[in-house]
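Before surveying the methods themselves, we first show a specimen of the format, giving the amino acid sequence and backbone structure tokens:

:::
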Amino acid sequence: MLGHKLNSFLAFRVARLQSLGQALGKLGHERETADSVRIWAVPWVVPAMALVSGSSRVLDRVLPDETEALSFLVVARHQTKAA
């Protein structure tokens, strides 16, 4: 979860990649932004994001924490009464 938050910070605050994502049709739930992509930051942000993602996967295997989750999924089924 911390890796996801750090990657979101790097992508959206440091490199300002949200405008690129919106141009590609992603992030439809976010407000539109006029901020341009910081091209100079991309060569550092993308490898840093890959390192954070890889490290997070390793740490999740080595030190799992069942109480932390990025999101939850609820599956519900409607049952009808038999006549």
